Amino acid sequence: MSDAGYEAVGARIVDAARAWSSDVVLASQVPDHDELALMRPGAVLVSRVEPARRPELVDELTGLGITALAV
Question: How far is residue 39's CA from residue 26's CA, in Å, rounded to a whole number?
Fold first, then answer.
């Protein structure tokens, strides 16, 4: 679907920095350090996190004050 199609039904198209700084972020892949740096404390991340395989990511999220929901 085109951006115009989403905008026609009320969505706003923003750049990556604006999207990652939202209160709730839904990501299809494991976020990298640069993406996490754009998030603010108290934000919620719904994403692949793989906590058993990536404990360092869990530590980073904790240190940044981000609530993560692993899918």
Answer: 12
The count of other CB atoms within 10 Å of the CB of residue 13 is: 10
Is 70 buried (19+), middle (13-18) or exposed (0-12) by CB count in 10 A?
Answer: middle
pTM, two decimals, is: 0.86
Helix locations, the chain, DSSP H: 3-8, 16-20, 33-37, 55-64
Q: Quote the tokens at residue 56.
A: 């360092």
The token pair at 25 is: 């972020």
Q: Give the model confidence (pLDDT) of 21-30 as tens digits.
A: 999 999 999 9
| Block residue for tokens 């640069």 | 34
